[in-house]
Specification:
Length: 291
């Protein structure tokens, strides 16, 4: 894979409509292609269970407006998986916001050999469908997973989590992968703020974000195809150095902001992103409290 415009003929279908929830369906399409996923070091043994026509259609749209969609999403998944694997031994409480069809809490052995409680938050219908598909495939749902049905754009997240056994006083590993650019800007701002979940000092937060230049570009392309915009602007200064300083002010330390374009080029020597601004970042930081 030398550039973003590699051919993925098996995904070339057409679509007239889309929704935020179908992004989960489209992401499993590329992870379900075992040869493609394994070439990047990605292992998602349950992805094939969630393949749908709607997901194929959504993936086709995503690839047509964003030629780097496949490479960047696979490398992001691999990078965050590695960060999760490294962090699990240090945390007994793990929170996936916008979990979608992510099944790492089931497939990764690190979750089973460490004493963890996992909370997965997403739309009620998405979590219901996820559980039904897994059960029908005779996949055992571990007792340590708590499914928390909720629209993240609404208030009351902490209340819902606590009603399911979440303990704000315990250091928590929080993952928000491929989520924030689909949410209203104010919701993104709220979720990044450690006070929203009353995070305990020592909690680690992992998420990715796009620059507003990239968001504007993709919104224009999506609007040409669908007649509407899908993505919300990032509510903070999007340059890594500026955003780094804002996170420090919020009480975060040990902040690492990785350029996804560089991560992709490390896996694919000679990779060139010639189609769009290369402003897609993965953030990992530890909350230390600003008091």
């Amino acid at each position: 894979m030398q550039n973003c415009s590699c051919n993925h003929q098996q995904m070339n279908t057409s679509c007239d409509s889309t929704s935020i929830q179908e992004t989960a369906d489209s992401l499993v399409i590329i992870r379900a292609d075992m040869a493609l996923a394994e070439s990047v070091g990605v292992d998602d043994p349950f992805a094939h269970l969630f393949v749908t026509e709607a997901g194929k259609q959504m993936a086709s749209i995503a690839i047509s407006v964003d030629p780097c969609y496949v490479a960047f999403n696979l490398v992001r998944y691999r990078h965050i998986t590695e960060r999760i694997r490294d962090a699990i031994p240090r945390y007994h409480q793990i929170l996936f916001l916008g979990a979608g069809y992510d099944t790492r809490s089931i497939s990764m052995p690190e979750f089973r050999i460490n004493p963890v409680e996992v909370f997965e938050v997403d739309y009620p219908e998405k979590l219901t469908m996820k559980q039904q598909i897994l059960i029908q495939a005779c996949v055992e749902l571990p007792s340590y997973i708590r499914f928390v049905p909720m629209n993240l754009s609404q208030s009351g997240l902490l209340h819902h989590l606590c009603s399911m056994g979440f303990r704000p006083s315990d250091p928590t590993l929080v993952i928000m992968e491929g989520l924030l650019f689909f949410l209203p800007s104010e919701t993104t701002k709220r979720l990044i703020n450690p006070q929203t979940l009353e995070l305990a000092p020592g909690s680690t937060v992992i998420f990715d974000y796009w620059s507003n230049e990239r968001i504007d570009m993709l919104n224009r392309r999506v609007e040409e195809k669908l007649g509407k915009r899908l993505f919300s602007l990032f509510p903070y200064p999007d340059h890594p150095s500026q955003f780094h300083n804002i996170m420090i002010d919020m009480g975060y330390q040990d902040i690492v902001i990785s350029d996804l374009d560089i991560l992709v080029s490390e896996i694919y020597p000679g990779f060139r992103n010639n189609h769009q601004p290369d402003h897609w970042f993965v953030v990992q930081s530890v909350y230390k409290s600003n008091y």
